[in-house]
Write a structure and sequence with these properties.
364 residues, globular, 6-stranded antiparallel β-sheet, alpha+beta
Length: 364
Amino acid sequence: MIKIRFCPECGVPEQVTGQYRWLNSGVIVQSTDMTRRVGFIESENLDPVYKGIGEIIGVCIDRLVTDGVRKGTLEYIRNIIPPGVRDMIQKGLTPIEGIIEALIVNAHLNGFGKFELVDFLYNKDDDDFETVHVTDPFSVPLCAGVHAGACEAVTDRSNEVIYSETFPGVYEFTAFICEHAGELAERLHTKGYHHKEGGVYLERCQTCGGPKALSRFKWDLEIGKITNTLTNKRMVLIGPEVQDPLFEELEKELGGTIPGIVVEAQRRFVKWGFFSMPEVGDHGELRNQLALRGLGDLREIKMGAHSLSMRVNCAANHLITVGMAQGYFERAFDTGSRVEWELSGDGDLLVEATPQRITAAVTI
């Protein structure tokens, strides 16, 4: 296994703070490609949201979810593996096992779960495949897409993936050569990030240079899990381009239903205390929490018992952010609420929450 060094000061794997950059715009990007955003988000509400959407529309959306993350992973892996290395693998000049091991380590660093190689074939033909077991995946359809995208990036051939639960909490994922349907390839698009200066200042670790607040999180690389030690909730490092295009596509098909479902799920997640929120009025800490997660730059916020209004520049996972703001307001004043939001073309998000005695229930 590749040896990973931890920062002696903050305890964060040095590969994490070397691979990602936290910018003053409240954005996290890949160090090797600053157009590719990354989010550091709570993960335990992801699959319930996808399941809830499927129940409402009567169709499972796992395939769309998997294909979205496959495409995002494809770009991500191509950025972290030098082109020369991929060329050597495809020409048979270097063993593929070393890259497989490195990608498994990277999955553990990102909190995806415990990956173990089961079998693979790489003859550079249509019979190529790779099978892994994943224990406690952070999301089943998202892990499926991660596996397919990683295989596709290395082999430079289109991959599909099938999976099943072999033991409780253990899933077998097999990626294999398969041309993708044009429909999905056309429907989901990722957007590059173009930097806009912001005013976020995250205190830095003096040793590794990463945000000092990362010391509150524990990386367990043996099982591929990141835990918020303040809340005991699971975190994951994954690009916002996985979810935003998916929700946009579903909204086109289903109208206004999908955004409300996503926002409601996150509202519950926050209101019920699933991650630590700052004290009422500590807007600086709220701004830091958003920026630490790569969700954007909190530029304005006004909050009292009668309303919450805020503006976030460079917002990502904006529906998650809206639900977080609504849940924060409800926790602060022990009230139900209604929420409205607007997202500009360049990613600036306006949110307003107001009290409501009875909040409409949405089944998740």
